[in-house]
Every structure is written in C-alpha cells, then in structure tokens.
Amino acid sequence: MSFLKWDKSYETGIKRFDGQHQKLVSLINDLNEGMAQGKGKEIVGRVLLELINYTKEHFSSEEELMQQYNYPGYLVHKAEHDRLVKEAGALMEKHQSGAMSLSIETSTFLKKWLTNHILVVDKKYSSFFLDKKIN
Ligand code: FEO
Fold first, then answer.
1. How far is the CA of 34 from the centre of ligand 1 (A)?
2. Is the pTM of this model over 0.90?
3. Which one is predicted more confidently, 69 or 1?
4. Domains of the chain by range and CATH?
C-alpha cells in the first residue's frame, strides 16, 4: 500500500496541475520507500533533490498561470510557495551537511507539507481557473 495515496479529494480540476501534483505524490512515495528499504544516503538524497526540484518547477508553472490571468490570490499563494521552498532547502542543507539523516519523519513531514498545500491553498484557485475554462 502506498505511503501517500492519491485520491479525488486532491483534485483541483486543473488537469495540468493535477498531473504535476500526482508526480509529486509519486516522488514522496519513492522517497519513503527508499528510506523504508534502507537504501543508501546517496540514493535517498537524490530522490529528495528530485522532489525539491520538481516542486520548484511546479510552483513556477502555477505562478506563471496566476500572473497570466491576474489571479487575485497570487501574492499570498506565491508567499506560501516561497516559504515551502525555503523549508525544503533547509531540509536538504541539513541532509547534505550530515546534520540530519533522512528518516520516515522526513517523508511524513513532506507528505503533510504537500497535502496541506494542495488541499488548503491550491484548492482556492480551482473555481477561478475553471470559470475561465482553463485546465
Ligand atoms: Fe500545487 Fe501551489 O502548489
């Protein structure tokens, strides 16, 4: 059974973003599986880096669309993205410096980090973009 299972409650209705969110869910599952199977620090670190990089890419694509359509919640949403990127960067730094070893708590933290953002912050743009027939 997956550590983080995608279900309809995560859907924003904007297909391009739902697809990207699903990829993020899959990377969190890979990270958790790597740790659960005791894979090496280097392998797990690579998955964490891929997750962080893909998260940044995803955030940029949401921000671009928001700016393009003058989404009224853009600044608040971007501030939340910036905060999350900063948190993820701090996690990566701690891991790379050896100050923290990746553990199940790391993937649990990232799971909450992502699902709270999708369910609370991303959901707010759904009706705005759907009204504009964007998906
Ligand atoms: Fe899907 Fe705002 O990140």
1. 25
2. yes
3. 69
4. 14-131 (1.20.120.50)
